[in-house]
Amino acid sequence: MMAQYLEIKAQHADALLFYRMGDFYEMFFDDAVAAAAALDIALTKRGRHLGEDIAMCGVPVHSAEGYLLTLIRKGFRVAIAEQMEDPAEAKKRGSKSVVKRDVVRLVTPGTLTEESLLEARRHNFLAAFAQVRDEGALAWVDISTGEFRVMPCPPLRLGPELARLAPREVLLSESAPATASDTVTEMGAAATPLSRGSFDSSSAEKRLCALYGVGSLDAFGSFARCELSAMGAIVDYLDLTQRGKLPLLQPPLREMADRLVQIDAATRRNLEITQSLTGGREGSLLHAIDRTVTAAGGRLLERRLSSPSRDLRDIANRLAAVRFLVEQRGLCEDLRADLRKAPDMDRALSRLALDRGGPRDLAAIRNGLAQAARVAARLQDDAPALLTGAATALQGHDALYAHLETALVAEPPLLLRDGGAIASGYDGELDEARHLRDEGRGVIAGMQAEYVQATGINSLKIKHNNVLGYFIETTATHAERMLAPPLNETFIHRQTTANQVRFTTLPLSEIETRILNAGAQVQELEKRLFESLRAAVLDQAARIAQAARALAEIDLAAALADLACAEDWTEPKVDDSRAFHVIGGRHPVVERALRRQGQPFVANDCDLSAGDSAAIWLLTGPNMAGKSTFLRQNALIALLAQAGSFVPAQEAHIGLVSQLFSRVGAADDLARGRSTFMVEMVETAAILNQADDRALVILDEIGRGTATYDGLSIAWATLEHLHDVNRCRALFATHYHEMTALAGKLAGVDNATVSVREWEGDVIFLHEVRKGAADRSYGVQVARLAGLPASVVNRARVVLEALEQGEREGGRRPKALIDDLPLFAASAAHVEQRAPKTSAVEDRLAAVMPDELTPKQALALVYELRDLLG
């Protein structure tokens, strides 16, 4: 056995080997050590090899999926070796013959299909990057839904595209440069190297033609060599990992970068589009607005937010669908009620295609088609094109639905081997076999009653196990009566255990044969009928997949309509102009958080409309006033509009945005030796080098990570470059008030500020954005609100006043003022520590013990305090 294990393991050295041993998957040697540590299970030993103990651990087959999920999340690949024959067959070859085993599947992060291993509302993409000379291409597939796409992707665009797709695993040629592997790792995906042969474009074309059963790929589009290479690598890898059982893949769709808003990785992270800065879904835009009621609708929403469109026709069609359902509230609610009952047909179909499906996957197809018919019936001809087109795809499945409805029980079991999936009346032979099996069970019960009466032993039972089959069991005391005449002529002794004695009879042996044959026949018939139903479903897989996509499209439109009505969102005007005019804009995530705290969100206007020149707002104001929120909310409004959603504003006119750039917040990258300031400069450089005149750029606190004059000069030059070279629409927040002078020098720059009020030394944030410039940053006041010690705050005020006075008196540099300022250690003598004044009311309250007051005394105290205020 160990020789067989080592032989299989040698073929899959880079994966943990799950070696099937009866009801367990067992691991040995280094695999056992690694798996035991990762799964927190016991590490034991079994036998010896080359003079050393063999480490071993195992997991039960019935709960293996949970262990697989843990291993995959921790970066392991798992090869599953199953028993390919019954142990009884192996014994026929000799008592020491080893059961045949072989790997039936490689489980990797990008090839998961099991429901328990996947997130229902997220795609699980497997991607491949190919490079042919200077050209690159990226292909990706979700084998759990069949989606298959490819796009041209120069090496420099690999990072942003991986950030958009968030694949779990990326295939790279073994000859790919190290930078490609580094980029994949940075994006949080597993990098899997393949041989150069897997990426050969000529072989790839043949693989793809064989997959789709066509002589040429011309019907699917025209693909470059590097695109064929990437797609071919995916098909080759799926053939390897699925051991020849290729999933149902939709014909490849070619995406073009110029049809989507370009968003780089830093911008996605800063805007928290699909995940928050902490890495989870909660706190993201997606989490705040997701009202879809189906898993497929949730996945479609994530795709739309990750890839906003630049196609005005697509945007208009999506907005028209949302508008129609906003106006038809009753229809929208009815659709959502029907959609809530729609299962995930995409993933059920995929499992059936890979022969990993069960009766419940067939039921999911049946129930999904039933809901599809109900949804289609609700949509009339006067609906927008997007909805009527989806309704068409939902129709024409009556025959398959009727077939599945007749064949399947209402609630099938999870596993086919559990039995009872096929409905009574569907197949006469199965009904007859079931009747015999079930009648046999009744006969056994009747025989037990007869034997109890014949022997007078009430505790006599007829039982069954896999070794003896059916047998009669009684206690040793009662057995003496059965072993004595005349009962010994009927009851034949079979086995004696510590406390029981077991018998059989000739009639019992005969009925056992009948029952066993009937039970096996039922299992075989159900398996055959299941395969017949599976084939019928797969025969219409393409049309079922279209229906599944149509349900997702309707679900998304209805969800966005429900969101718009509930949150008072408005339809944006999106056109080919360079306008950007938002009235009463709000940040959807922050507004939601404030609402939970019972606080209102202060809406603000933004006007970056530009003719042929740049349109930039230079935003000043203190920290905590809401500058970053204002910047982000306008970027998100543009993103939502081009994703085809209504937006959180009273009115919005968005001229088509080609690129979205955000440089907000600060973080270092210690793993790559980058300081916070270095990261800031790298991200800023990417914006200045790539932004075109259709871009929307939001920048916050450029240059704050270095010396004051260095930072000011960098921020100044950056703003000039955005205005003169990029000529884009931008929001530029800064604490460098000196920059407000640029508004008078650059035609496309306007000053704006976030309003605050000072009251008795405190700063009150109004969160209102208005035209004009801030006169100060209120940093000392914010520091006091943050809880800095009073001595530090008071000292800061003294230093600030000295610095400002020096500036007024001739611009003395800070260094020249040091001698005029007392040392901090001696500051107590120079900083007047005034005891806070107290009032008579405060003095009186300080002397009160509330718990000791009677109601009458408390009322008297109120009158007394009023008199003191008097």
UniProtKB/TrEMBL annotation:
Superkingdom to which the source organism belongs: Bacteria
Protein name: DNA mismatch repair protein MutS
DNA mismatch repair proteins mutS family domain segment(s): 695-711
Keyword ATP-binding applies: yes
UniProt family annotation: Belongs to the DNA mismatch repair MutS family.
SUPFAM superfamilies, per the entry: DNA repair protein MutS, domain I, DNA repair protein MutS, domain II, DNA repair protein MutS, domain III, P-loop containing nucleoside triphosphate hydrolases
InterPro entries: DNA_mismatch_repair_MutS, DNA_mismatch_repair_MutS-lik_N, DNA_mismatch_repair_MutS/MSH, DNA_mismatch_repair_MutS_C, DNA_mismatch_repair_MutS_clamp, DNA_mismatch_repair_MutS_core, DNA_mismatch_repair_MutS_N, DNA_mismatch_repair_MutS_sf
The protein's role, per its UniProt record: This protein is involved in the repair of mismatches in DNA. It is possible that it carries out the mismatch recognition step. This protein has a weak ATPase activity.
Keyword list, A-Z: ATP-binding, DNA damage, DNA repair, DNA-binding, Nucleotide-binding
Binding, ATP: 621-628
NCBIfam families tied to this protein: mutS1, PRK05399.1
